[in-house]
Specification:
Layout: H1 7-60, H2 65-84, H3 92-100, H4 111-125, H5 138-143, H6 147-156, E1 161-168, E2 178-183, H7 186-190, H8 198-207, E3 211-214, H9 224-227, H10 230-237, E4 242-251, H11 253-262
Antiparallel strand pairs: 1-2, 1-4, 3-4
Helix pairs in contact: 1-2, 6-8
Length: 268
């Protein structure tokens, strides 16, 4: 008599096969996760080192800390997109080159066109008969200014303006904290419409190379009215031992020439 077929035996065998497949699949996933983690750790270390070296190199070459920080942020973003496989183009370097290779109207500029412009610029530099009425950046700067910023530039043409940082005092050397930076009367004196935007205005003017922030103070008398202002007094009183650090805000030679040429009313 043939052996009777046992359905339970078949079910147990099928469950054993599925369990084996599940274990093998889990091991494979674990290997993938470990490998991915190692690759991510290596990417993070190499990317962090590369970005840090870039920031140090930019600052050492004379670029501002803000400019170096912006470059570092763009580098970190591009590196992350590359790791994640998400990008507007298969070549991030080509994407950045494409952004650089556009003129003011946004039209694409080829490398050949850039070289032609460079050669034309060098030709003009050696041409003693060539005359340039104004710096070519002035038109672009005018498009980047607000009316309040024009008022600030006119004010600074009258002379540098005092500014103060409010810091907390500490018995421990180099342990004071910045409470309020760059307080000044520039907004009021210039007649700005949006006083609360003055810090943004000054940052933009500095970015454009029109003004610069000096750590050197002006004469003592320049600070008496400023340090009596409610905003300064409130900042000093907000900490246990507050104090003011005197600074100053100046026009750059570039900014002075820009104001003379672009923001001085014509004489009838």
């Amino acid at each position: 008599m043939p052996d009777e077929h046992d359905p339970m035996q078949d079910m147990r065998q099928e469950m054993d096969v599925r369990a084996t497949e599940l274990v093998e699949g889990s091991i494979g996933l674990a290997r993938i996760a470990v490998g991915s983690a190692l690759r991510t750790a290596k990417w993070y270390a190499s990317t962090s080192l590369r970005i840090a070296e870039g920031v140090v190199g930019s600052v050492a070459s004379g670029e501002s800390i803000t400019h170096a920080a912006n470059d570092a942020a763009r580098g970190a973003r591009d590196a992350f997109l590359e790791l994640a496989g998400v990008s507007d183009t298969s070549d991030p370097d080509a994407q950045r080159d494409d952004a650089r290779g556009r003129d003011r109207s946004g039209e694409r500029v080829t490398a050949e066109e850039l070289r032609r412009r460079g050669a034309d610029l060098l030709r003009k530099s050696s041409d003693v008969t060539y005359e340039e009425d104004a710096h070519p950046a002035y038109a672009r700067i005018l498009d980047s200014l607000s009316p309040d910023e024009a008022r600030i530039l006119r004010l600074l043409m009258q002379g540098p303006q005092p500014a103060v940082d409010v810091r907390s005092s500490s018995p421990v050397p180099n342990n004071s904290q910045l409470v309020a930076p760059g307080l000044s009367r520039i907004g009021d004196l210039a007649g700005c419409r949006y006083i609360d935007r003055v810090p943004l205005y000054l940052n933009n003017l500095h970015r454009l190379g029109l003004v610069w922030f000096s750590r050197e103070p002006l004469d003592d008398g320049e600070y008496q009215v400023l340090e009596a202002q409610p905003a300064v007094q409130e900042a000093v009183a907000s900490v246990k031992r507050g104090r003011t650090v005197r600074r100053s805000i100046h026009m750059t030679p570039f900014g002075e020439d820009f104001v003379v040429l672009c923001l001085t009313p014509p004489i009838d």
